[in-house]
Amino acid sequence: MTREEALNLVKKYVKNKNLVKHMLATEVVMKALAERLGYDAESWGLVGLLHDIDYDMTKDEPEKHGLISIELLKDYKLSDEMLNAIKAHPGKKELETPMEKALYAADPVTGLIVAAALIRPEKKLEVIDTQFVLNRFKEKSFAKGANREQIKSIESLGLSLEEFIDIALNAMKSISSDLGL
Predict the structure, then answer these.
(1) In order of start, what are the domains of the chain with their CATH numbers?
(2) Where are the alpha helices (DSSP H) in the chain?
(3) How wide is the angle at C-alpha 105 spanned by C-alphas 100 and 106, nearest 5°?
(4) pLDDT band at 145 (very low <50, low <70, confident <90, very high)
(5) Considering only CA atoms, which of 180, 103, 132, 121 is closest in space to residue 172?
(6) What is the pLDDT of residues 111-135, one digit of tens each?
(7) Cβ contacts of residue 6 below 8 Å, gap of 6+?
(8) Is the full-model pTM beyond 0.85?
């Protein structure tokens, strides 16, 4: 599957513009992680882009989230590794591969970074840095939906929390105009 095909599927199935932005953010974070860890950035990026493709259909039935995605994507040329990562990110299977572990951590870190940018008067990614995001990470009441344990799970891939946030923030800054930040 090409990125263009994946983006067309996202536009077909995802109507919430903020969710599309989240998926774009997760895509660039996954690509950056793949490059840092020595994996295929194209496939990791596609997984990030497609990971929430069923969200609009499953938001009232979270037990189906990830599973419907697999049904939607089964006829496309995605590897089992990619499909398993999409299935694993909402907890539908044990995390085993680096791709699964990366997506599990990348998903919530994008929300933390967006929330950190939005509390600044400028509401821009360019005005925040890694330390600013790390400080927000430590505030339990800040961006409660960004699961801290899930984000910290990146350490299972040999990255520190600080390295991970730095990678994710810089990746997201590279598409700040697409994110409206």
Answers:
(1) 3-179 (1.10.3210)
(2) 3-13, 17-37, 41-50, 55-58, 67-73, 80-88, 98-118, 130-138, 148-152, 161-173, 176-179
(3) 95
(4) very high
(5) 180
(6) 999 999 999 999 999 999 999 999 9
(7) 46, 49, 50
(8) yes
